Fold:
Amino acid sequence: MGRLSARGFRVLASLLTVVAVSCVALPIIDSSASAMTSWSLAQVPTPPPTGGWSSVAYLHGRWVALSDAGNVAVSSNGTTWSQQSSPMGSWDSLAYGSGRYVALSSASGVPSEMISVNGVKWSLVHGPPGTPHLWGKADQYGQWSDIVYADGEFAAVSSVGTIATSVNGLSWKVHFFRPGDDFTSITFGGGRFVVVDAAHGDIVVSLDGRIWGLVHQPLADPIPLPTGGLHLSAVTYGHGNFVAFGGASSGAGYVATSVYGENWTLHQYSPAESIAGATFGCDAFVAAGSTTGTTDPIMSSSAGLTWTPGTVATSSVSSWTSVAFGAGRFVAVDAAGDIAWSPSDAKCAQTVPSAPQQVSGNVHSGEVWTYMHPPASSGAAPVEGYRVTITDGVTTKSCGAPVYYEPNCIIRGLQNHKIYWVTGQAYNRYGYSAPSDAEFVIPVQVWSLDTTTTPVIPAQTPAALQLTGIIANAAGFYPVTTVRVHFGSRLITCSPSPFGECIFKVAHPPVGVVPVYATYTGYGRSYRSPTHVVKFASVSVSATTVSASDPITVTVHGGISGSMAVATVDATSGQGHLDGSGNGSFQVTAPSAPGQYTLNVNDAGVALDQVPVIVSG
Structure:
């Protein structure tokens, strides 16, 4: 379905106020039926494997658990388990397809794979290479962290940055290798594979398992990343939504959601947990891992946003390593040798919708007009309405949209030229969907092609540019051709957001005056924005080590013409007028007491620089 043209949307916008009046009130829907809060311990083989269980899965009508010590246990119902004979190995991941179970080893060595036709009797095979020789090094085997069977093939990932596939689980081919990445988890959904990485927070996506695209930290604002970046430990898919989790090294308490696996929205939850495994089933996401708290860290969510902790009666706080869903129940395993299961939920059929599609719209002064297309799946009941949420990380606003061909609503009371993030959710009688992928939007006073940035920017600071007012073509789509931004002698291109806008930063801008304007062709004609001038100012001082109460000469180049520049250090300050070119010099007196200080230079309220100054005795 196409989007409305700019003209068509403005006609619709004139009616939105009437539509908004008739919007249904956003309901508070109890989704607790999806929360898996009650867990019981299963009867497990004794003694437990050294190091506990590493993985569990429900495959081909059978539960199978693996350990890094070479143990295999099976169960028909997830509550009573028996140990089976198996080859020694650090078995860490498991899948079923092409008539066989395939288990891979997390250790470095050969053989790195074992197979079985029934999950009971296992035999060793060579296994896929962990690192390919074609990258200039000898083949290394093993170090596999996860495997999935989907779309007619096995796909496996390793802790050394390898992705390999196999049709039969015997003959493997490496399709992607990124040294330095630590791939921890792979899932399939919505016609694509998604892989997450614990080393850098990378996400890798493929539509066929052969051609892979790397998306590095593709996280939308406004929630900042944790210190050290977000390192991802698990990913799963459900309700038309990918959900990825932060791990122990950096990211405990963080979860990211995405519809297509390319643009991700970051969320936080508390108490924070380091997630090791995740799955989806019975209208719920369930994740398991470890925590520094006093509760067992298994938690569940209906949409991946808010999470409810579960309780397992283990003798001590457990470190859960894997969780899976099958035959109407969840099963989790831990590093102490415990296996826990959740009771069957008779309400598994009560599913919520998938996320709305193509959330888009237009802007006006202090307002965002949004519309969207219905979700691909309404769930187990008809869609009753939609919720649109907009946030800048501090203020969050919502509006409700009734069921309509293109559901729409208006959010008002926003600040012009502030960047907001918009998501949409559908809901039925059983609850809200996961949010759509976040799209940024910038309200502006006048909707016309324009570039905006701070008039004066410190020379060492990247220039943050906003490009707004891009008009959709007659078919309702924003220009297929890229929009060109002329930044002095540089040419920058961007593809507009669904709201007809772009945001980007220009690194290493030149000192001095830089003209900025944008051009594009769309809607049957060419467009050019007004030319704005940006000044990149530099600051220099006569000395950074001075005696007490000595004068310090401050020189500004490229500031605001005719403005008053001010320098402060401790309790003393100095100021001077800049000439018509924004240049000037003036003095400030150093503090009388010895020590280390910071000299702050401002031009008409714009912070230009902070210079460390040492005052000697």
About this structure: Residues 450-534 form a domain with the Immunoglobulin-like fold (CATH 2.60.40). Helices lie at 6-21. The first helix runs from residue 6 to 21. The first strand starts at residue 40 and ends at 41.
